[in-house]
Amino acid sequence: MDNRRFLESQNRSLFPHLGVGSFMLAETNPDLFGTEFVCLLECYTLSPIGSIHLGTGVTVTGLVPLDLKLTMYQLEHDFPQATVMATLMCAGNRRTEMSKIKKVRGVPWGHAAISNAIWKGPRLQDVLLAAGVHRLESIWDTLHVEFEGVDICKDNRGYGSSIPMVKAMDPKGDTILALQMNGHQLPRDHGYPVRVIVPGYIGARSVKWLQTIRILSHESTNYFQVKDYKLFPPHVDWDVVDNWWDKAPPIQEMSVQAAICQPADGEAISPVGNTPLKDTP
């Protein structure tokens, strides 16, 4: 089965109440891991969330000395273009394995809600410097950078998230506003015309269909920053979680992990001869 058919089949099994083509949320076929280091576009994990109306540029606002309204042409031609190889993974990757220990909520990902690609676009650092944030350098460690997309989700707001300002301004952090993926124009499924890429952070922070960047004195108040993607103590469950949202830190950096892709979980193997193993870091 080719991966697009695999994704569509998986999507129907996860969300049978949704019409075909109305929604796509599915992970890469794990059989493909180990065949290519960089995932082909048609093999990439897909996770659109809300209603999408494509934008035409990006606004930089908030606690910046200079508000910016940047067109796609300006993003491509007025800033140096950086090329970054980065792996994105959903924070809920391997939920099916987690649920074997303690039942968790959310999309029942296997171990393949992860993909690696080559991204190209202006560095977020350069865009923010154009908005004058160098004048705020003494308080960078108190600020946050919020990203908001055009896809309307919870609370009638665009999907949004934030990262610390120091991460955004780290010259070694490689955070970019991606216009290309694997040498091609960014596909619509993956955030066209522009998305954020935050290497080393959970995929939820790499906001697609980006329309607004805000500099804030606090973390984003978007639902997906304050009511999702959080870590709780072991004794916290869904009966008491409402008392913990404000106490729990958001998940930002991802821990290094690895999974065996072949043989598959539960697959019977012959005790005679050699059995090839494929893993994914």
From TrEMBL:
<dbReference type="Pfam" id="PF00174">
    <property type="entry name" value="Oxidored_molyb"/>
</dbReference>
<dbReference type="InterPro" id="IPR000572">
    <property type="entry name" value="OxRdtase_Mopterin-bd_dom"/>
</dbReference>
<dbReference type="InterPro" id="IPR036374">
    <property type="entry name" value="OxRdtase_Mopterin-bd_sf"/>
</dbReference>
<dbReference type="GO" id="GO:0020037">
    <property type="term" value="F:heme binding"/>
</dbReference>
<protein>
    <submittedName>
        <fullName>Putative sulfite oxidase</fullName>
    </submittedName>
</protein>
<feature type="domain" description="Oxidoreductase molybdopterin-binding">
    <location>
        <begin position="58"/>
        <end position="224"/>
    </location>
</feature>
<dbReference type="GO" id="GO:0008482">
    <property type="term" value="F:sulfite oxidase activity"/>
</dbReference>
<dbReference type="GO" id="GO:0043546">
    <property type="term" value="F:molybdopterin cofactor binding"/>
</dbReference>
<dbReference type="InterPro" id="IPR008335">
    <property type="entry name" value="Mopterin_OxRdtase_euk"/>
</dbReference>
<dbReference type="GO" id="GO:0005739">
    <property type="term" value="C:mitochondrion"/>
</dbReference>
<dbReference type="GO" id="GO:0006790">
    <property type="term" value="P:sulfur compound metabolic process"/>
</dbReference>
